[in-house]
Amino acid sequence: LAKTTQPISMDSYEGQEVNITCSHNNIATNDYITWYQQFPSQGPRFIIQGYKTKVTNEVASLFIPADRKSSTLSLPRVSLSDTAVYYCLVGDLNTGFQKLVFGTGTRLLVSP
Amino acid sequence: IAGITQAPTSQILAAGRRMTLRCTQDMRHNAMYWYRQDLGLGLRLIHYSNTAGTTGKGEVPDGYSVSRANTDDFPLTLASAVPSQTSVYFCASSDSLSGEQFFGPGTRLTVL
Fold first, then answer.
1. Which of B58, B102, B104 is closest, CB to CB, to A99?
2. What does the pLDDT read at residue B95?
3. What residues contact residue A67 under an 8 Å CB cut-off, 6+ apart?
4. Higher model confidence: residue B1 or residue A91?
5. Whole-angstrom Cα distance, residue B20 to residue A100?
6. List of residues 6+ apart from B15 with CB closer than 8 A
7. A97: number of Cβ within 10 Å
8. Core-most of A24, A96, A98, B7, by most CB within 10 Å?
9. pLDDT band, very low/low/confident/very high, at A30 (cuts 50, 70, 90)
10. Which pLDDT score, from 0 to 100, does residue B41 have?
11. Interface probe, candidates B38, B103, B109, chain A, greatest A C-beta count within 10 A
């Protein structure tokens, strides 16, 4: 299973764009990159998933360079409610089943 | 119900006692998972099941057992609880198409 490395914490202010970068140097050919968000006392929630280049949905964008050894989660115009822990994970999606490895994540604090 | 439910919400248990944490999903997902999350840390996979009738060991399986008699239910049993099993336990499920994992609200277990 590919190991991921991401910053322990980040601080931001409301309305700013936040970019969280994750490194996964030993990502395998079949691995997808997935980001989850976790609020205190809740289970993680899926944010976005991608394989290469750029993926965008209604809450975030995911940028993946050609070598796929890193990825960046971009949160546009964050609000106080985006304060949470963000996890970057990689795993093989081909079977629809993933033995995901959650690291310690990035703790994002958004201030007024 | 919609999604994943877990029971109990919280439990205080004497060491040596047997305990079963319940997990039920109504999304007809093939795969189900059990994670534990210790204070301030990421989630660690205990056991998983990629389809009814089959189970597998995750990263930290010792002291835990699971069964998957049908698609909807995936109970986790602690045969003889120890204080190091004090944690928050999350159940999750995913389908065979997206691999996105949906998490339950968690069970907070304290073993004294």
1. B58
2. 82
3. none
4. A91
5. 24
6. B81, B82, B83, B111, B112
7. 23
8. A98
9. confident
10. 85
11. B103
